[in-house]
Every structure is written in structure tokens, then in C-alpha cells.
Design brief:
Elements: E1 4-12, H1 21-27, E2 35-41, E3 49-53, E4 56-61, H2 72-96, E5 101-105, H3 108-121, E6 125-129, H4 135-143, H5 148-168, E7 171-174, H6 177-185, H7 208-217, E8 224-229, H8 239-249, E9 255-260, H9 266-275, E10 282-286, H10 293-298, E11 302-305, H11 311-314, H12 319-326, E12 331-334, H13 338-347, E13 350-353, H14 357-368, H15 371-388, H16 391-406
Parallel strand pairs: 1-2, 1-5, 2-4, 5-6, 6-7, 8-9, 8-11, 9-10, 11-12, 12-13
Antiparallel strand pairs: 3-4
Helix pairs in contact: 1-16, 2-3, 3-5, 4-5, 8-14, 12-15, 13-15
Amino acid sequence: MTLRICMLLPIRYGPNMRVNPQIGIASYLVNFGHEICWVLSGENSRTGQRITLNGIEVHAAPYIHYFNEASLIGKGFNRILGMFKKARLALQTFKTSKYNVVFVREDTFDGIIGTIIKRKYKIPLVYELVDPLEQEVEGYRIENRKPLFLWQFLATIKASLKRYVMKKADLVLPTTGWFERDLSKIGIQKSKIMPFPNGVDLTSYPDPNRVEAIREKYHLKNCKVLLYLGVMAKMRKLEVLIEAFARAKETEPDIKLLLVGDGTGRNGLEKLATKLGVREDTIFTGQVPQAQVPDFIAVSDIGVSPVPPFSFYKVSSPIKMLEYMAMAKPVIANEEILEQREIIEQSCGGILVSFNIEAFASAMVEMLNDRERAKEMGRKGYEWVTKNRSFEILARRLERKYLQLIMPGCGVRN
């Protein structure tokens, strides 16, 4: 049976569009003969766009700057209007085409539209929840976003609406089994929850010319490179990584730390690196195109995955660790994050540490001084990822669940 899936996604179409791995997994079904459509926001266009991308039909709603984006209020109004244009496009798409599954990733407003589509067209609603409901509220507190009461109030409303969408959905996709248990505790029916972890596209390879250009640009020849790939928000507490690197550098002078990504905490991290005397060897690249991520991993010797042990992060599925392992890089990761601990224990693809400066620094020195062991860890990590977390493996699992939903008598209905 052919699945025809319409996915409402919280991303904007454009040349620098970043497609999350879980979107990639859900869209990988096009390789099995199924049909996939994306509905998302477009570029600054008055007409919208309709294109085909890797076999996927993409419908992009126009995003018009009616108000000055320099002001928070103007940006907010533009976003609200953009949401309604996207909702209208989604409803028109279902009116003109026949789909048998509607998929929503995380977004609250898209979730509400998804419940309307489910009810009107009597098809299953699949809702992917990436972050725990309390994460946004706690994140604003940790980052001290002003005015705090307003942001937390809005986040609380969004959490309530997400809970409503999950109760209406036929299938809920949290990132891990631990996250699944948390959802069961708040009343989401366990029989309609399936963990949907991160995975890797094993067909994505580094470009030798770009790899060499990166080595030249950042002066990475004749040194050992530690890599952090991901968000640099204040709540990520990456000061632990910078200080651990500075401590490791006391005994390993020929190392550099490459940080690929951006976020609200970057300026503070740069100042800390300067204060500790390691700024010259701490490289901040900023955000890079998604296609170049394998190139940056290729220039590294060790991948680091420090994730602060907040309750909402403990049940997460960190993609950076899997991306390192997919390119046979040994990993240093903290054990408080349940999935990191499970994967490292199963794969033997790295070293588990506690989330503190001394533990990360010690693991860096240990791995740098035993290159053969590090290489073996990288090999084992790669083997584990290919057997357990490839796009194809995870997409097949999702395909089976979709087919159960649309076959008479096999789905979960509200």
C-alpha cells in the first residue's frame, strides 16, 4: 500500500534550510515508493513556491514582511500572519490532493491545524514532540529572558496546547523511551506512543576539497582537533567544555578546539577562552551549511558531546554524538544523558564522563594519548550506528507503524 504523507514543518524553505535528521528519517519513506509532501514557510515571496526536492513535493507559503522586522512587535506580527498563510496553504493542499497521513513536527499552531485536518479528512494525525513540555519554560528561566513572566506565560500556554494535540493524535513520536515514559505519566495513551530517536544519513560524505580548505583556513594541520558541533545557547553550559579544553592543553599543547554552530552563549564563551589564554586555539566557525557538517567532522580527531544534566536534556537524543560516530570518530560524552550512556555502553564507541571540567579534561588527555584505542572506539561506534541508527532502519520502523495506522482495525483512534 502506498502511503501519501503530508508533513507540516516548522522550517523555512531557502538555500540555507536546515533539515533536522528526524525530518530526514520521516521523509526517507519516499525511497520506499511512498509519496511525501512538505508544507512550510517560504522565502520573502508574495506568491509562495512549489518545487520538488529529492523526490519530495515542497509547498512553501509566502512570508511577507508587512511590519518592520527590527522591532520585536513587528517581527511577532509578521510571524503570526505567516502562520495563518501557512495554515491556509496546508488546508488548500489537502483540499486538492488526497493524503492518508498528516505529520506535524513539534509546532503548536501546526498541531492545531493537524487536528482540524484529521477530523475533516478522517486520517491519522502523527505528532512528533522533540522537546519535553517543560523545556521552554525552564529555558527562559535559565537564560533569564526578559520580560521573564511574559515568555514563561506564553510557553505554558504552548505546553497546554501541545498536550491537547497529543491527546488528539493517533501516534505521538517522542525522541526516546525515557521521554515516552514521561508522556505516559501526564496521561498520553502509552499504546499510541513510539520513540523516534535521531539517526544519521549514511549517504552523506565529506568533500575532500572542502576538508582541505577547512584545514588551511583554520590552521589545523599538525595538530589534534577536538570538535563540538551544535547549539551554543547559554543553557548549554559550554563553559565546562572551554575550561576542560584549557586544562587539557596544559599537558597537550598541540590541540585545538573547533566549535561549529552559534547561539546566545557564544560571546561569553569567546571571552572565557580569552581569559583562560586559549582563544587562539579555540575556533568558533559560526553556523555552517548543513552539507558541510561532514567536512568539519572529517578534520577532527575526537568528538565531544557535553550536555548539561537538566531534567529535560536527560531524556533527549543528542544528534552530535551520532554524527561523530557515523564518521568513525571516538566520542567523549557525559553519562547523565540517558541515551548517551546507553549508546556508549552498547557500542564501546567512546568514553563516558560526568558533566564537570575535570572529567572532560581527563578523558581528552586519555584519548589523545592512546591513538590506537581511540581509533578502535571510532570503528566500533561506526559499526553500531550503521546497524541501529541509519535513516533506512529508522524509516522502516516508522513505515510499519504508519501502515498499522491506516489499515482497518489496526490504528489507534480517538
